[in-house]
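In practice, a research group might receive sequence data for several interacting partners and want a quick structural hypothesis before committing to experiments. The following worked case mirrors that situation: the sequences arrive first, and a predicted assembly follows.
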Amino acid sequence: MKNLFDLTGKVAIVVGGSRGLGRGMAVGLANAGATVIIASRGFEALQTAAEEISKETGGLCVPMQLDVTSLPAIQDFVTRVDEKFGRIDILINSAGINIRKSALDFEEEDWDRVTDTQLKYVFFMDQTVGNYMVEHGIKGRIINIGSLSSMIGLKNMVAYCASKGGIVQLTKALANEWAQYGICVNAIGPGYYFTEMTKPLLSDPEVMRKYQEKIPMGRLGLPEDLASTAVYLACDASGYVTGQIIYVDGGWLIN
Ligand code: NAP
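A structural hypothesis for the assembly, expressed as C-alpha cells:
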C-alpha cells in the first residue's frame, strides 16, 4: 500500500526556515523525503541550517535568500526555485517577527513591520505560489503559521495578534477559492516554543513557571512537535483537509 505520508519527489519551500519553528518543520519535510528550500534574509544562518538539515536527514536542503516583505523579491524567488527545481508542491510560511509594546504606545512603523511580515506578504507569497501551482496543474499544499493569538488576545502584542487572527481568515478564504484546483490551504497554531522570538519572554524564570503551569502537558513545545503536523498537512494523507487551523499547543487553549 502507498505510504500517504511519503514526500519523496516533492519540492517544498519553508520561508523562515533558517531557525526556530521553520527549521523544525524543514527537518520534518526532509525526513519525509521532500527536497526542501529554506528561505530567510540572513544568508550565513541559512547556509549553516541547510547544511545541518541535509546532514541530519540525509535529504537535500537548499538555502535561498529572501526578504519576504517585497512582492518583486517573492516573484524573483519563485522564478529561481522553478529554474532550479522545476516544481513547487509545498509552501510553509514561517517568517515572523514580534514587537512587544503596549497598544497605547504602538507606532505606525512597528505595526507595518509586524503585519507586513506576518500577514500582507504571507498573502503575496501564497498568491505567487498559488498561481504557480494552478499554472502547472500541481495539487499543492500551502501551510500558514498562526499562533495562540489567532484565537486569543495576548497583551502588549497588538499587531502580532491582529496579523495572526488574519492568518485564520486568509487561510479559509484561499482554501475556499483554491479547492477547485486541488490545492489545500491550512494553518498551524503553535503554542509556546523556545526560539529567538520568544527568548526575551521565556528567559524570565517566573514567566516560564507560569506558562508551564498553564499548559496541560506541562512543558513548552519543541520544534519537532510541529514537524509531524507540518508533514501531515503537506502530504497525500490530508488531501481532504482544507481551511483548517491545527493548534499544536500542549493543550493551552483548552482552558
Ligand atoms: P524565529 O526563531 O525568530 O525565526 C523567524 C524566522 O523568520 C527566521 O528564519 C528569520 O530569519 C525569518 N524571517 C524574519 N523576517 C523575515 C523576512 N522579512 N523575510 C524572510 N524571512 C524572515 O521565530 P519562530 O519562533 O521560529 O517563529 C516562526 C513562526 O512561528 C512565526 O510566524 C511566529 O509568529 C510563529 N509562532 C512562534 C511561536 C513560538 O512560541 N516561538 C508561537 C506561535 C507562533 P531572518 O531574520 O534571517 O530573516
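Before designing any experiment, note the following. The beta strands are 11-15, 35-40, 61-65, 90-93, 141-145, 184-190, 245-248. The CA atoms of residues 150 and 175 lie 17 Å apart.
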